Amino acid sequence: MKTILITGATGDVGTHLRRELAGQYRIRASDLRPLKKIKNETFMRADISRFSDAMRITKGVDAVIHLGGYSVEGPWEGILNANLIGCYNVFEAARRNGVKRIIFPTSNHATGFYRRNQTIDHRVYPKPDSRYGVSKVFGEALGSLYADKYGMQFLMIRIGNVNPVPIDKRRLSIWVSPRDIAQLVTIGIEHPEIRFEIVYGISGNTRAWYDNSNAMRLGYKPKDNAEAYAPELLAKEKPGNPTAELYQGGVFCVAEDIPNPAPLPKRKQRKKRK
Length: 274
Ligand code: 15L
Prior knowledge:
Layout: E1 3-7, H1 12-21, E2 26-31, E3 41-45, H2 51-58, E4 63-66, H3 76-96, E5 101-107, H4 131-150, E6 153-159, E7 161-162, H5 169-174, E8 175-176, H6 178-190, E9 196-201, H7 213-217, H8 230-236, H9 242-246
Parallel strand pairs: 1-2, 1-4, 2-3, 4-5, 5-6, 6-9, 7-8
The protein binds D-galactaro-1,5-lactone (15L).
């Protein structure tokens, strides 16, 4: 049985994946916060913005599912530490520890500024809708570099919204059920020919904004479709912000006041030599 590391294991996606994959893999769950262990699971507490922690948790695993970091928009310092530095540390530590396979759950917010009347595939240029979306594009770019330069293998899953059921009209297009996202992650761990691939993490939704043929080519057969929930959801839906309604990323596309970045720590003045 393969051992897989799941970073950010206590989050929503991590919790669904741990449950779905428990019978298939030996899971090393990791997070800043402690968690209640389930079957086939060990836990390692880690702060991935520290390289030594990233080295410790990636040692001796067959694949990494890197969920750790901010999973929504956040202040720049938080995104920088958790999503850029954290992602770099995990990919670089995996490389040094000889781990070849990484599944990186990127996000629909990496391409959130595409309009809802467009269908996009895995080849489009990113159009992030937030600092969070930019951090996901960073992860995709870093994975591309590590695949080409070091021969590592990456499945980039641009996740829509993982939930037991879709929660609104927007999610009818981007919803992914826990068992469908687990199927995509399993493809990422097992497919023999992955070098660097981008797929969309959505179920077989009738209203999808994505041409997910790359996922299908790799063997993905979604079991669910958000359309089953459409009549009930649409009956409850209230009109939203007009900018949000135009773009795939929804409210992430609406301009907000950006808080001032925290000041950089003062550098110590070197003593002048006499
Ligand atoms: C994401 O990328 C987030 O991780 C999740 O919390 C949701 O906001 C989701 O996108 C979404 O767009 O619904």
